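User: Could you check the structure of this?
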Amino acid sequence: MAEQLYDRSSRECAVGHLDARLRTAVLAEAESRLLGDVAATVVCCVETRSVPRRRTGFARLLGGKALPETLAAAVLLPRHLLVAVSDANTGGVTALSGRLAEMTVAEVDPRLAIDSGVSLFARWSDQPEAGSIHLALGDDPAGASFREHLRHAVETAKGS
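Assistant: Sure, the predicted structure tokens are below.
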């Protein structure tokens, strides 16, 4: 059996307890989309730490510095999902938002990649067309809980 690409661990937390860079990006995205007071309306919030299990390609052959760690945050609101991801190479953070009523949640196909998390298809932020992103979640209780909250919220949003 193929091995997982990342060691991932998730933790449920309040928006105020997210990594400062992720929190700033999520709140800025919410403000730019006029989503209101995130802390007052949050349904569930999770932060996931991802570390590659091994170097690939030339990096594996040449050794080098420690493997970069990536942080991601997902903030579930009653009608929207906010996602922020840190870039391990630049240290920058990208934040996106999507409407739950227009979102599709799918498990990662194990034939394509052995990874934990979900694939999300939606029209993200100001993008003219819908696209897919991977939301990294740990194979732990916090990751599983967020996955279930997200599935339920999407089903509820599509039903109303």
